[in-house]
Design a protein that fits this description.
Length: 94
């Protein structure tokens, strides 16, 4: 199979899915249709030649924190709705 050239943007998106979003290399590689070892090499290269500053890394973590906080709020709202529905249902059964 000939070597495929991927754009830098494609590579960075794949790397971000693993590093910033915590997806596994196998999952991301399968989803994007690339070999596991290719993605692993991209990550290794990105870490060894990383030009990102601590400020950039901090921004990535802040963004991920905001995403997780939104998800947590949504899940908490769902739990509250389910509790109310359960209480209402129990009240109707009496």
């Amino acid at each position: 199979m000939p070597n495929q050239d991927y754009s830098d943007e494609f590579k960075q998106t794949a790397i971000d899915q693993v590093i910033a979003h915590g997806h596994s290399i196998n999952q991301v590689a399968a989803r994007l249709g690339i070999a596991d070892h290719t993605l692993h090499q991209w990550i290794h290269d990105a870490k060894s030649t990383s030009s990102s500053t601590p400020v950039q890394n901090e921004e990535i973590f802040k963004q991920r924190l905001r995403e997780l906080q939104k998800e947590n709020a949504r899940l908490q709202m769902e739990v509250d709705i389910l509790k109310k529905a359960s209480a209402y249902s129990a009240k109707l059964k009496k």
